[in-house]
């Protein structure tokens, strides 16, 4: 599909106003146009008949066609609040409808989901433009010289912008809101363009659902924005760290809103001092996986045929497998044996963030426990999955398991493991994909051993799906 310019999309919206068609513009349907549009072809004057003629209407009647909720000529004009007023002007003062006036009439343009991929210089014709919303388009690059210097609001949510270099080449002096959420931003090069030198009047900044990972570098840049009061960072990998949002709030004390939530004095007091601990801020996430109990597994003895031989004796046990990222640090311990090591660099931050981290790290295990089995167990080597992020081609995951329990109506595992993740981008993709769990059944067959020999056992494992896991 070819490129589509913003000028083309705006022209289509302007044509939809039908400014030259009934009941707008110059036309014989308007009585106020005078004798210029009088119909001469009928051979008589309307005044001689004592009536106005069905083809002409008063100005107020034409206005009612534009504003009545039941009128087929009513135009909502959701793409600009000035669109309905321009149509009204086309009835009251149609002589004003020339190109320069039309373009200067608009203060707001909302061109949403129109397939726009190029912002061209045609936008400069809108000399009084204050608000430009280009959400849900296909814009990958934006040149500041094609934007009117009068802009106060620029919204580019859900596009394909991968660099801020073009937007910062000629800063907009009046810009108060910049919406860059859900784009392909997040590199260190992007951070250097988020400074007060370029955006001295910026009050609101939306960077949500992007790829920013480094809190300290981002905070250093945002702290130079003297007017910043509203910041949106949700959906970024850095929000997965224990130090978020405390470090951001303490480092940017002038913020009034963070992630659409009002920042209260209690919030500032709660996180006071985190900015001074910046050397201990680590771009690392902690995730706790807990499997409390399982219900709903059918009783395996209900399906046993009473006519089968006495041997082999069959015993059943169940355990839960789940995949997690393989970036866990070496030397982790089994969950339930200790608490997190106090030498962990994240420990002081976690303690500041209300209660610290409960639990310990866990080393991915190749089996739930030692077994004698001839049936292959689930793949316990690290493997890859498709990533949801464009900058991560694949993510390494490894299988983790709970201990095994004999069947019961409610099997209480009380399994807890804490995973440390250093690659925040991969962790974000993993979280968006979701945590996959499988409940597996192990069946052990036992025969009595001849005298002087060890008992013989044979185990098999079957996967169970759709079970309730708390």
Automatic annotation (TrEMBL):
Presence of the UniProt keyword Repeat in the record: yes
SUPFAM superfamilies documented for this protein: L domain-like
Chain segments carrying region Disordered: 447-470
InterPro entries, alphabetized: Cilia_flagella_integrity (IPR050576), Leu-rich_rpt (IPR001611), LRR_dom_sf (IPR032675)
Comp. bias regions, Basic and acidic residues: 460-470
Key words, A-Z: Leucine-rich repeat, Repeat
Presence of keyword Coiled coil: no
Protein name as catalogued: Leucine-rich repeat-containing protein 43 isoform X2
Gene: LOC106580366
């Amino acid at each position: 599909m070819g490129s589509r310019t913003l000028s083309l999309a705006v022209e289509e919206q302007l044509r939809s106003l039908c400014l030259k068609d009934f009941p707008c513009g110059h036309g014989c349907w308007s009585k106020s146009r005078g004798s210029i549009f009088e119909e001469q072809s009928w051979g008589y004057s309307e005044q001689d008949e004592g009536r106005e003629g069905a083809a002409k209407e008063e100005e107020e009647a034409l206005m009612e066609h534009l504003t009545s909720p039941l009128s087929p000529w009513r135009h909502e004009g959701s793409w600009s609040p000035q669109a309905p007023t321009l149509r009204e002007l086309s009835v009251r003062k149609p002589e004003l409808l020339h190109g320069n006036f039309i373009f200067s009439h608009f203060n707001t343009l909302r061109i949403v989901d129109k397939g726009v991929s190029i912002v061209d210089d045609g936008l400069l014709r809108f000399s009084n433009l204050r608000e430009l919303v280009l959400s849900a388009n296909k814009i990958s690059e934006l040149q500041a010289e094609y934007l009117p210097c009068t802009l106060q609001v620029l919204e580019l949510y859900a596009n394909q912008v991968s660099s801020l270099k073009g937007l910062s080449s000629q800063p907009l002096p009046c810009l108060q809101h910049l919406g860059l959420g859900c784009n392909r931003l997040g590199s260190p090069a992007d951070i250097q363009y988020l400074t007060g030198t370029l955006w001295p009047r910026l009050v609101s900044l939306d960077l949500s659902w992007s790829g920013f990972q480094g809190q300290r570098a981002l905070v250093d840049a945002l702290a130079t924005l003297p007017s910043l009061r509203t910041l949106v960072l949700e959906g970024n990998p850095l929000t997965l760290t224990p130090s978020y949002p405390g470090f951001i709030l303490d480092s940017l004390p002038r913020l009034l809103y963070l992630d659409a939530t009002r920042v209260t004095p209690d919030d500032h007091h709660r996180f006071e001092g985190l900015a001074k601990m910046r050397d201990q801020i680590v771009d690392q996430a902690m995730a706790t996986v807990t499997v409390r109990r399982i219900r709903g597994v059918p009783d395996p003895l209900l399906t046993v045929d009473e006519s089968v031989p006495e041997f082999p004796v069959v015993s059943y046990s169940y355990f839960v497998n789940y995949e997690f990222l393989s970036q866990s640090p070496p030397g982790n311990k089994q969950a339930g044996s200790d608490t997190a090591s106090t030498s962990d660099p994240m420990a002081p931050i976690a303690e500041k963030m209300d209660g610290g981290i409960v639990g310990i790290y866990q080393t991915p295990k190749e089996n739930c426990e030692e077994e004698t089995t001839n049936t292959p167990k689930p793949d316990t080597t690290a493997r890859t999955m498709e990533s949801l992020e464009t900058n991560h081609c694949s993510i390494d995951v490894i299988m983790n398991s709970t201990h095994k329990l004999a069947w019961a109506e409610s099997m209480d595992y009380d399994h807890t493991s804490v995973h440390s993740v250093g690659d925040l981008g991969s962790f974000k993709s993993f979280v968006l994909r979701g945590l996959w769990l499988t409940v597996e059944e192990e069946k052990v067959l036992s025969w009595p051993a001849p005298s002087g020999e060890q008992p013989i056992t044979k185990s098999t494992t079957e996967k169970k799906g759709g079970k309730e896991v708390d």
